[in-house]
Structure of Iron complex transport system substrate-binding protein:
Amino acid sequence: MLKKSLMKKSLLWLSVFVLLLGVLVGCSQQTAKNENQPAQNSSQELALKTTYPLTITDDTGTKVTITKEPTRIISLIPSNTETLFALGLEGKVVAVTKYDNYPKDVQKKVEYVFQDGLNPNVEQIIKLKPDLILLGSLNKKELTAKIRELKIPVLQFDPQSLDAVYQTIEKVGLVTNTQQQAKEVISQMKEKEKSIKEKLAALKPEQKVRVFVAVSPDLYTPGKGTFMDELITKAGGINIVEDQGWVQYNEEKIIKSNPQVILTTYGYYDKNAAANIMKKEGWQNIDAIKNKRVIDLDSDLVNRPGPRIIDGLESIAKALYPDLMK
């Protein structure tokens, strides 16, 4: 009897031990799993670290080798400056141009401000000892060649579409070892693009408005194949200009095409841009004039192919379809 009792107790303790062991093993596995989780995250972060030397192809088709992580960067075009600051590289940008006005006080945050970004003083560039220079499509080939002779890495970017802007941000992130930040910036931009698309989804083809964009008082305008044309299309509009590229448009063609909305982008130097369009002789019967739908857009948002271009797209969509974009 005593033997049986002892056996029962032994079995009971054995059961409890096995149960506790199972709990402990489970906890141990969970702990191990939790401990491994940061390691997985670390490996993901490591995967986004840039390894140098790095060879990258810019928009001119030139292969450029970056030997180490850049710490002294010169940007000679506003869109590139905005990209660099969006990636958190404020402390590594040593020079910009007088046209760079974003982020706020950007010119106070650098060592030098070039008065002419298209033809900067090469001697001043040398004094700044840059290890990376970012250019745009407007910079002359001669400048690029001169800088490359000095063995300074130069990258020239000329994105002509929203997808190309995403690719440029990705490349700048790769070159500057800010891939994670670039990934986050692009993700936020794409999320906003998706939101705009969803708001315009209810738009029927017959509801799409005809649009004319004036980028200067003498009626220079973006035609097919331009960045601005893509933005108009993505914003649900129809560009009345059928010509390819940037053209000076004929007033008779504008009157005949009868745009329902006219957008101007030169209000930064002509505060009466929209008002002057409204008063144009012979334009009184254009729908945009009759319905007072002449709107001046922030030129920096719609003309600079950087992170804020998505805000430019939103501003166009709001100008065309204010009710849908509420």
Remarks:
- Residues 54-191 form a domain with the Rossmann fold fold (CATH 3.40.50.1980).
- The chain has two domains: 54-191, 202-320.
- The first strand starts at residue 54 and ends at 57.
